[in-house]
From TrEMBL, chain A:
Residues 202-215 have a biased composition (Basic and acidic residues). Its main location: membrane. It holds the Pfam family MrpF_PhaF. The keyword Membrane applies. GO terms for cellular component: plasma membrane. Belongs to the CPA3 antiporters (TC 2.A.63) subunit F family. One of its GO terms (molecular function) is sodium:proton antiporter activity. Residues 154-215 are annotated as: Disordered. The lineage of its organism: Bacteria, Bacillati, Actinomycetota, Actinomycetes, Micrococcales. This is Na(+) H(+) antiporter subunit F.
UniProtKB/TrEMBL annotation, chain B:
GO terms for molecular function: sodium:proton antiporter activity. Coiled coil: none annotated. Belongs to the CPA3 antiporters (TC 2.A.63) subunit G family. Keywords: Membrane, Transmembrane, Transmembrane helix. The chain crosses the membrane at residues 6-23, 43-61, 67-89. Residues 115-137, 148-163 have a biased composition (Basic and acidic residues). The keyword Transmembrane helix applies. This is Na(+) H(+) antiporter subunit G. Residues 115-163 are annotated as: Disordered.
Length: 215, 163
């Protein structure tokens, strides 16, 4: 029992129909193999997740093709489960991806060459955006010298703009303004106390200390 | 016969879309462009396959099941793409030199500037509050014990150093 619900489009004794069905199946197979290539190679885990989505979509389309060609209906629950797995996997992976997963493949290659420990998630494995830019610049030099020159002139700008996304908010507050000195100057009450009361000079000193530690 | 040909063409179109998605996800250089390439067969290919199945099995049961699958994909594919793109932006999985313009960058800069302003205002208010308390204390016990004078500014300084 395979849920047969009608006349199949392709039967074994139908030569031309079978040829067409096999050709379409070969195209699906090629798509699956190429998606697996990206899953294996993909430099980051998000690339792998995208390729996995494409892989699962291809599998679903292939199952739908089988269902249409052989007129069987028992493959639809399988398609539903596959689509659900694809969604849950994509959301889970993108929810828990971290910066340590950046370019894991290149890290493994370096580990094969004996440079670097290859550990993931440690300070050793953390790669800031500067090497990323260097790799890109290298590629651009190989492909397009004009674009490489443009990137080199705009390199620092690119780098800071990419650094600003994940920067610590406290670091950003340092770069933007000087709140500590402005605060002390703009606070007449504190200055008045500091002038009048000799006892509170100690407190003012401590205040300066904390502000210095903060800025 | 005509229906058979049409459904075969639909399935062949879905197969070609899948192949294009796979080739695009291998050939394209960036996370976002790979996402653009690989999201084509997830909906359009599935809809084509559904048309082929509906032309081939002309009954309501399989067609409604197929419709449920397509609706599920229709709801979940944008969510998954949004999550992946968001995670890629936050973890800097994108090449900035390949972007013509980064609209999210303006929003991020604006939000950070707003945070900085809010923090400055909070600090100013806190300093004013500390000064007011200190003022009141000196007015209450002028020339009081040194230990009491020492401890009160410490209490007010604690939140500052903690940050």
């Amino acid at each position: 029992m395979n849920g047969q619900q009608g006349i199949p489009l392709v039967s074994v004794d139908d030569g031309m129909g079978l040829t067409i069905a096999l050709a379409i199946g070969a195209v699906f197979l090629a798509a699956v193999v190429i998606a697996i290539v990206r899953i294996v190679r993909g430099p980051s885990i998000l690339d792998r997740m995208i390729a996995t989505d494409a892989f699962l979509a291809t599998i679903m389309c292939g199952l739908g093709g089988v269902a249409a060609f052989s007129a069987r209906t028992d493959l639809f629950p399988v398609m539903l489960v596959i689509s659900m797995f694809g969604f849950v996997g994509a959301v889970g992976v993108s929810r828990y991806v971290s910066r340590a997963d950046l370019r894991t493949t290149s890290r493994f290659r370096r580990m094969e060459r004996g440079q670097g420990s290859g550990t993931i998630g440690t300070a050793d494995g953390y790669e800031p955006s500067v090497p990323e830019l260097a790799i890109e610049l290298q590629e651009a030099r190989r492909m397009d010298p004009e674009r490489a020159a443009r990137m080199e002139t705009a390199g620092t700008d690119l780098d800071t703009s990419s650094m600003r996304v994940n920067a610590d908010p406290d670091d950003v507050s340092q770069g933007h303004a000087t709140p500590s000195e402005g605060n002390l100057d703009a606070d007449p009450a504190a200055e008045a106390i500091a002038d009048s009361d000799t006892q509170s000079s100690d407190a003012e000193h401590r205040d300066d200390e904390t502000r210095g530690g903060q800025s | 016969m005509t229906l058979d040909i049409v459904s075969t063409i639909f399935i062949a179109g879905a197969a070609l879309l899948s192949l294009a998605a796979a080739i695009g996800s291998v050939r394209f250089p960036d996370l976002l462009s790979r996402m653009h390439a690989s999201s084509k067969p997830q909906l359009f290919g599935l809809v084509m396959v559904m048309f082929a199945v509906a032309l081939q099995i002309q009954q309501w049961g399989p067609v409604t099941t197929m419709l449920v699958i397509v609706l599920f994909q229709l709801f979940t594919v944008p969510v998954a793409a949004h999550m992946i793109g968001r995670a890629g932006y936050r973890t800097k999985h994108l090449r900035r030199s390949m972007l013509y313009r980064d609209e999210l960058d303006d929003a991020v800069a604006r939000a950070q500037a707003r945070d900085v302003h809010a923090r400055e205002a909070a600090e100013r208010e806190q300093a004013a509050q500390a000064a007011r308390d200190k003022d009141q204390e000196t007015a209450d016990q002028s020339g009081g014990s040194a230990s009491g004078e020492d401890r009160t500014p410490n209490d007010h300084d604690e939140p500052d150093t903690g940050r």
